Amino acid sequence: MSTRRAAPRSGRPTRLHSAVFQPIGDEGRAALVQRRVAEAIMSGVLAAGERLPAETELAAAFGVAPATAREALLALRERGLIVTRRGRSGGSFIADSADPVRFATRTLLDGSRVSLRDAAQHYLALTSACVELAAQRADVSEIAMIRTRLERISDHDLAAWRMAADDAVIELAALSQSARLTREQMKLQGEFSPLLALVDTDPASRVESRAHLLEVLRAVGSGDADGAARALRDNTRFAVDWLIAYREQHIGIISLATTSPERIRP
User: How many CB atoms lie within 10 A of CB 35?
Assistant: First the structure.
């Protein structure tokens, strides 16, 4: 089942989608532009077939020179992440071969169990701070709107569910009324979302993750900061345990495939 996200409707980009095209300040180099766009492609924030802004628009969005944006686009083309088409309807588009699941699996296999747990702990610490503050500061009606949007998404629609789940977490961060926490959450969600999407490829796990997130929202809506943090902790632990098991399984498969016939004979 694909985790590719449908391109957002015109004028209504998702929060993560909007976070991709923000100025990068004094670090405005081609490598940094390339990395941000590549991460967005591989996390599914930018979907296969989606058109990137024109070169000058991309440069303005990132706050870099057009030549820097041009260099970044060239590097992305060489990596096979984007393709360029000529003509009136031409431009730079996300390549069909840019597969978020394959990227997330590769990232997971290249890392270690320690690094995965460390990343998850960082995610949990920041997100817990956001939901605890949201439980104290958010209006009940705001939480109800988020819950309603989530409940309308079928858990059979993987791409739509992952998009809605990411947006829900970022909206909770925004409801913490801390601009700094919200900015950090947007960045971290983009980094951790590919791994969460990997968990969601398993239907049973997706159902459990959905239940955990709805419980977070229920607790925030009732002003239960401890309950919200506990539900988030349960969800994060569940995701990490699933990812570790998935990683060990795939490492075993790779090891078996690279073992000579003589070594695997009984």
Answer: 15
Contact (CB, 8 A) for 220 and 228: yes
Over range 19-36, report the average pLDDT: 71
Query: Domains along the chain?
Result: 15-94 (1.10.10.10), 100-256 (1.20.120.530)
Tell me the three state secondary structure of residue 214.
helix
Q: Which residues contact 46 (CB under 8 A, 6 or more apart)?
A: 17, 20, 37, 40, 52, 94
Window from 115-129, 180-194, 225-239 with minimum mean pLDDT: 180-194
Task: Report residue 157 as tokens.
Answer: 């629609």
- Taking residue 29's Cβ as centre, other Cβ atoms within 10 Å add up to 14
- The answer, as to whether pTM is greater than 0.70, is yes
Q: Is 95 helix (H, G, I), strand (E, B) or coil?
A: coil
Residue whose tokens read 């980094």: 191
**Is the separation of the CB atoms in 8 and 164 below 8 Å?**
no
Helix (H) or strand (E) holding 85: strand 82-85
In a 3-state reduction of DSSP, which class is residue 45?
Answer: coil
End-to-end CA distance of the chain: 36
Distance in angstroms (rounded) separating the CA atoms of residues 38 and 64:
17
Judged by average pLDDT, the poorest of 58-62, 129-133, 153-157, 236-240 is: 153-157
